[in-house]
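pasting for the record
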Amino acid sequence: MNSEGKRRQPGVTQSQKVDGVSYYDRSRFCVTLSEIADSKNRENMDVVIKKLAARYGLKSAAYFGIALHGQLSDEPFLSVTYSSEWVEHYKSQRFVEIDPVIQTGFRRLLPLDWDGFAKTDQRVRTLFGEAAEFGLGRKGLTIPVHGRQGDRGLFSISCDRSDRDWTHDKLVYLRDFQVLATHFHDKVLSLVGHRPSMAHLSPRELECLQWIAEGKTAWECAVILGLSQHTVRCYLESARHKLNASSNTHAVSIAHRAGLLLPIL
């Protein structure tokens, strides 16, 4: 129970921590990564997204991929926890034409907090109101993923946290789902037939990425490796360029997916 006498939502625990991350947080993140990596088909991905929604205490989770290189059809790749009733209602009302998640998400690089959407348009208010009636949460995040060959994906999650809890939990979700969304997108690409070639990284580039994957800053990497911070940043910039990654987090995800980095224990 929290100080206000209300039961804490199950999304984030306050269990014992190591380096600022609780054992539970690290465990559920690693388990989800393993489940994504082990998926063999579309049905597996549907199971994974349902499990991660339950594991993170979410009301819903959804992946929407378009322009997937290797896919035989032009249909988007959908993996969602939504009810079939909501999917059909969404289509019949043509909400895709005014949904700010879709209309804004594919043009953005940074995550979107649904609280930031202007709901002055009556149809947008109707969309979010009816979404809640069909089981989606009123708080949400959307993580855009941009691939090397024009492929794009949106990974959205929703919950019903209070404003107070959302302030904290959103940071945890941003930390985990920026990585999970990239892994999910990469797995979908592999399932539809895309086989990307992997750039060669130098030993120093791999070392820097490995320490970034362990949660170290560029300054901490420099101390550990006996290099200047400027040199570490150069190695990281080179690695991002070779992997066509938009950030260090994105580069770590790509390198992990390719088996270039050691597992995080």
